[in-house]
Amino acid sequence: MNRRILLLLPLAAAAVIAAGCGGASDASTGDGGASNGSTKLSLVAYSTPQVVYDDAIPAFQKTAAGKDIGFDQSYGASGDQSRAVAGGLGADVVEFSLEPDMKRLVDAGLVAPSWNQNAHKGFVSDSVIALVVRKGNPKGIHDWNDLLKPGIEVITPNPFTSGSAKWNLLGAFVHGGLPFVKALLTQHVKVQPKSGREATQAFISGQGDVLISYENEAITAQQKGEKVDYVIPPDNILIQNPIAVTKDSKHPQQAQAFVNYLWSAAGQKLFGKHGYRPVDPAVAKQFHFPTPSNLKTIDDLGGWDKIDTQFFDPDKGSIAQIEKDAGVSTAK
């Protein structure tokens, strides 16, 4: 199998690495010790924010609104999680890496079209792209162009399963357009794991020289004692993570109360603690995240409908074609 696609980690090593990063490996499920309660909510989320929910769920359960509420939790690659819910996986609350994964559930009638009609436009956290390197930055990585140095091996997930990967490649596009993305993928990316968390595991296990990832994932790795540094490139994109209560939730009031807690100052501080940029401006001021000099938004690039078709459509997308030519699966 093409080495760009295949990533096999020994199960024991993967378990150790996942524990070291404070989160789940791909498609993990369980209650996270939060199953007790007369009302049970099902949370389905993408892979990296489990570290936040490890704190947020117990904190919510200590509030009046969260009393006697338990949780089932599922974490995995954002696209896979969205497709699982669309295919019948029960969920009361869903959080994804990017808006198209939420739109899939709107189109399926599982999330209300009004999910984003609030003060935060439906987003519970923000982030930016980080270039994660070994401690001390031995390869001298300071900007996107350094990823194209001879011999540099880069890890980024597969954009057809991972929301993180789409953000990563859009950040690369902001810097150098499609020619840069093509050079990066065809000459320097040797493995493309399924999710952002699996990509972190691969890097921490010793693969690659640079990991393209969320800023929050780099911070989480450092908080867990991993020997990594990271660079925030000046050409960057604002990552926005959507959250919603499903229309068929059996406990809509309790589910909404949990989402409201995540939007509260207390909940937003927990996101900030783990390296996410709070969407509450007042809370965001309490943290000191750097502002990239050329920070673009999805709207600056034409919106998700345009971007998904232009870049990631499996049949005609320009990045999809680059991946196909490199032997990478574009199957969703």
Please tag this protein with its features.
D-Maltodextrin-Binding Protein, domain 2; 332 residues; 2 domains; 14 strands; alpha/beta
User: Helix and strand string, N-terminal first?
Assistant: HEEHEHEHEEEHEHEHEEEHHEHEHH
Mean of pLDDT: 90
| CATH class division of the largest domain | Alpha Beta
Oligomer: single chain
CATH architecture descriptor of the largest domain: 3-Layer(aba) Sandwich
What do we call the CATH homologous superfamily of the largest domain?
Periplasmic binding protein-like II
Number of structurally distinct domains:
2
Taking the alpha carbons of the first and last residues, their distance comes to: 18 Å
Which stretches are low in confidence, meaning pLDDT under 50 for 5 or more residues running? 1-27
Walkthrough of the structure:
This protein is of the alpha/beta class and 332 residues long. The chain has two domains: 11-125 and 241-284, Periplasmic binding protein-like II (D-Maltodextrin-Binding Protein, domain 2); 127-237 and 292-325, D-Maltodextrin-Binding Protein, domain 2, CATH 3.40.190. Helix content is 38%, strand content 19%. The protein is built from twelve helices and 14 strands. The protein has helices at 11-21, 50-61, 78-86, 99-107, 163-187, 196-204, 215-223, 252-263, 265-273, 281-284, 304-312, 318-325, and strands at residues 28-30, 39-46, 69-76, 93-95, 123-127, 129-134, 154-155, 189-191, 210-214, 228-231, 235-237, 239-245, 277-278, 294-296. The strands form three sheets. It has a seven-stranded mixed beta sheet with strand order 1-3-2-4-12-5-13, sandwiched between helices. A five-stranded mixed beta sheet has the order 8-7-9-6-10. The protein has a two-stranded parallel ribbon with strand order 11-14. Helix 5 (163-187) links the parallel strand 7 and strand 8 (189-191). Helix 1 (11-21) packs across helix 6 (196-204), helix 2 packs antiparallel against helix 9 (265-273) and helix 3 (78-86) runs parallel beside helix 4 (99-107). The chain is globular and about 60 Å long. It starts with 10 loop residues before the first helix and ends in a 7-residue tail after the last helix. Residues 1-27 have low confidence and may be disordered.
